[in-house]
Design goal:
The complex is a heterodimer of chains A (about 100) and B (about 450). Chain A has a single domain, classed as Orthogonal Bundle (Arc Repressor Mutant, subunit A). With about 100 residues, chain A is α+β, with helices and mostly antiparallel strands. Chain A has a two-stranded antiparallel ribbon with strand order 1-2. Chain A is built from six helices and two strands; from the N terminus they run αααβαβαα. Chain B is elongated. Chain B has about 450 residues and is of the alpha+beta class. Among the domains of chain B are: about 80 residues, no CATH class; about 170 residues, no CATH class; about 45 residues, no CATH class. Classes of the chains: A alpha+beta (about 100), B alpha+beta (about 450). At the A-B interface, α1, α2, α3 and α4 of A face α2, α3, β9 and β10 of B.
């Protein structure tokens, strides 16, 4: 497994996924981060086992193509908790 | 894996193109799912957006540019080098591109394959150590040398490298004289130089042989060129013509003529002659030249340099710059592995080869320009400055690029984050933290100019 380093961007993305925004472009809309940051971070999060990617077949039934959605794993939840402990202000700012 | 569907037609062309091109760097296994993910996301986002059509198109294009970074990340996290090489090997376009680029790099780095081969052949011949290049302002002097073709072939063989460089050779042609095939060479120089070079120049006014006159006339000289002399050069009968400084140069079909009419466009130096001087060093030749030159007011000091030394200096310069760049890069960029060293080596050589090739080309071309009309000092300086400046700029870029790479895996560092707090700016200046995507560590860089500190790598 690839070692994951704690950064603001990855923590932010993980937080948004845990809040129920599973698609890449939705994450961009929510975080304001560019696609060149969001997608590489998603790849690394997936490689580390912090998020799990899967094809969303429901999206394809509506007439459009299938989408790949990302869900936070148990390890990802623990990672997010550690991140919020490290960045307490960040956790306050991103609370729903 | 979703089924293939042509939904991409609904998307803007430029965004699809960016995704398509970005996907080319991926292995075949990863390429299609990766493209489907991007195109699917773009399609759904475009359907759901409330932006105007033009704004949505622009936003989509900006987001599609991130596909390059994403493809690079996928390549580094999923694909192996073996897969990438296997994919490249299967693609004929990639093979053709790779071979073409290798050919271009080799050609550029050696200023032409044939020329570099000839150059090294020339440098490797110990007899060519005696060749000197003489640069001296002088009156115009023309030597037409007739050599039997067999001897000419022998001369060419012994000076193969020099001849093949091309810019040094003078006009040569094989002609028929009295039923014999002879080679005619035209050399330029002044009387003193030619004597020092081993030519025996007789008194002016000597009449030439009929056959030699025919040769000259047939070569396109005008009737003004009448002051011919007959000399013996290396045991061969030759015709020598002398033109005064004020004489009008006939319009010849030779490249070697230089108008010395004192006009603004006249070259300041003239008379580069490369000739073997057996038993004489360049210093001895220069000492011999200074005596007759001092007797001619207005003549500049001669410059005598060994041709081999000059050409060797070019090669040494290329090697020195390349090795220096490698050493600086290794010290500056924390190279810690053989793979990293190889990468630095290859990139440095490739980057330095182009300006070096231009420098080499300029040096060889400059000698040609002196023979064929001269080169302005400003142009000469620009000719040196441009390759040097471009070489320096490329090396600076290379150093900066390698400074922001992981010393272990040589991947580009990403996700820069500012660190530090305002209260500590006096003693601990603000810095930027860079991250290795493969998880090998972090790089802490100081952002302060006043309190600049070396970057620290934390593994």
């Amino acid at each position: 497994m690839v070692q994951m380093n704690l950064t603001y961007a990855t923590t932010f993305i993980l937080r948004v996924i845990s809040q129920g925004r599973p698609y890449g472009f939705e994450i961009m809309d929510a975080t304001g981060l560019p696609s060149g940051t969001v997608y590489p971070a998603l790849r690394r999060l997936e490689a580390c086992g912090l998020v799990r990617g899967a094809w969303d077949k429901r999206a394809g039934k509506g007439g459009g193509p299938s989408r790949r959605c990302y869900q936070i794993t148990k390890a990802g939840q623990e990672f997010l908790s550690q991140a919020e402990e490290r960045f307490p202000l960040f956790g306050t700012l991103t609370k729903r | 894996m979703p089924s293939e569907r042509n939904f991409g037609d609904d998307l803007p062309l430029e965004s699809r193109l960016v995704v398509f091109v970005s996907g080319l760097v991926l292995s075949v296994r990863d390429r299609d799912p990766w493209r489907l993910e991007w195109l699917g996301e773009m399609w759904h986002w475009r359907k759901g957006t409330t932006d105007t059509l033009a704004h949505a198109r622009w936003t989509l294009f900006k987001r599609s540019l991130g596909a390059f970074y994403d493809a690079k990340c996928v390549l580094e996290t999923r694909s192996t080098i073996r897969e990438r090489l296997f994919d490249l090997g299967r693609s004929p376009i990639a093979v053709v591109l790779m071979l073409s680029s290798m050919w271009v790099v080799l050609t550029l780095s050696t200023a032409g394959l044939s020329r570099s081969r000839a150059l090294f052949h020339f440098l490797a011949n110990p007899r060519n150590d005696l060749l000197v290049m003489i640069s001296i302002p002088s009156p115009f002097f023309l030597v037409v040398e007739q050599t039997p073709a067999s001897q000419a072939a022998s001369w060419m063989e012994s000076n193969q490298g020099l001849e093949a460089i091309g810019r040094w050779k003078v006009k040569r042609s094989i002609i028929e004289v009295e039923g014999r095939r002879v080679q005619k060479r035209v050399l330029l120089g002044d009387e003193a130089v030619l004597q020092l070079l081993g030519y025996s120049v007789p008194e002016c006014g000597a009449r030439c042989s009929h056959s030699s006159c025919e040769v000259l006339v047939s070569a396109g000289f005008s009737s003004e060129f009448q002051n011919l002399k007959e000399v013996t050069i290396g045991g061969q009968r030759c015709s020598v013509g002398l033109l005064n400084r004020s004489s009008e140069i006939p319009a010849p079909d030779f490249d070697a003529f230089v108008p010395l009419d004192g006009s603004k466009g006249s070259p300041e130096e003239f008379g580069i002659v490369a000739k073997r001087r057996i038993g004489f060093s360049p210093r001895q030749v220069e000492a011999e030249l200074r005596a007759p030159v001092s007797m001619h007011p207005g003549w500049g000091n001669p410059s005598v340099k060994s041709l081999v030394e000059q050409l060797s200096a070019v090669v040494k310069w290329i090697l020195t710059v390349t090795l220096g760049a490698i050493v600086i890069t290794i010290l500056h960029c924390r190279v810690k592995s053989l793979w990293a060293f190889t990468l630095v080596l290859v990139r440095t050589v490739l980057l330095v080869s182009l300006p070096s090739a231009i420098c080499l080309e300029m040096i060889v071309a400059r000698s040609h320009l002196v023979e064929t009309g001269g080169v302005a000092p400003l142009a000469s300086v620009i000719g040196w400055l441009v390759p040097l400046a471009s070489s320096g700029a490329l090396l600076c870029w290379l150093f900066r690029d390698h400074a922001l790479r992981c010393p272990v895996c040589q991947h580009c560092l990403a996700e820069p984050v500012w660190i530090g707090c305002v209260g500590k700016t006096i003693f601990e200046p603000f810095g930027t933290e860079w991250l290795c995507l493969a998880g090998h560590g972090r790089l802490l860089q100081s952002n302060s100019i006043a309190l600049s500190q070396d970057a620290v790598w934390l593994s």
